[in-house]
Amino acid sequence: MESIFHEKVISNALKVWGLELILFNSPEYQRLRIDPINERSFICNYKEHWFTVRKLGKQWFNLNSLLTGPELISDTYLALFLAQLQQEGYSIFVVKGDLPDCEADQLLQMIRVQQMHRPKLIGEELAQLKEQRVQKTDLERVLEANDGSGMLDEDEEDLQRALALSRQEIDLEDEEADLRRAIQLSMQGTSRNICQDTPQTSGTHLTSEELRKRREAYFEKQQQQQQQDPPGHPCGKPNTSSGALDSDLGDAMSEEDMLQAAVTMSLETVRSNFKTEGKK
């Protein structure tokens, strides 16, 4: 009844201007078979909401107050738009008569409007603005989180590099310690062998080459004596005592000299091994 009351109120108000309301989907109007684009104005009602679809100049506009602005409607879309409103439950009335002149109608008689973006519902626009603010806030939070995680990642990378350098230093120290122990063991083993095979003498320092030459000379001298002395002669028996070896090798060699020669031989062997491994 409330809708009917509003309809009567609006109908009486329009009669003052010589205008009349006719229900768009009534049998009387449908029998007229009038194309909607040939009309001048429509009034649409759903519950307590009323709005106008009017022709201004040569173009149709949806003047719904729930939109952010007038919506341009093409001639081909007008009939479909009215049918859609009817499906949504709207009552549509045709305004018959000569509408009063207005500035908008006079201006649009000379120019045509081109609408790039359709207006949105006021509530929809507010919802979109709110959603954009929420998305912006979420984006700022994500960026802040990424900045913080980036700093943490850099700290972790620095820590990993420091640990790697520390491990490398420890490995180098272990390798140097192992090398020193190997050299000491090699020197000790070589010195024991030389001390067992060679008697103690005193004198100047000898190299490994000089030591080898003296021993070869000693054994050659022993062989010559055996060839000159007849068998059974007391002097023909080779003298292998430590005293004879000491006299032939020279009284100048001492245990320290023998150890020094052994150390030299050991170091030369170690150096040659390192060079060979380095080439590989």
From TrEMBL:
Documented EC number(s): 3.4.19.12
Any one Gene Ontology BP term = protein deubiquitination
| Predominant subcellular localization, coarse grouping | nucleus
Q: Where is the Josephin domain?
A: 1-110
Supply the InterPro entries for this chain.
Answer: Ataxin-3, Josephin, UIM_dom
User: One MF term in GO for this entry?
Assistant: cysteine-type deubiquitinase activity
What top-level class of enzyme does the UniProt entry assign? hydrolase
Coiled coil stretches, renumbered: none
Q: Which reaction does it catalyse?
A: Thiol-dependent hydrolysis of ester, thioester, amide, peptide and isopeptide bonds formed by the C-terminal Gly of ubiquitin (a 76-residue protein attached to proteins as an intracellular targeting signal)
Per UniProt, the keywords (alphabetical) are: Hydrolase, Nucleus, Protease, Thiol protease, Transcription, Transcription regulation, Ubl conjugation pathway
Q: Which GO terms describe its cellular component?
A: nucleus
Region annotation (Disordered) maps to 218-258
Q: What is this protein called?
A: ubiquitinyl hydrolase 1
Gene encoding the protein: ATXN3
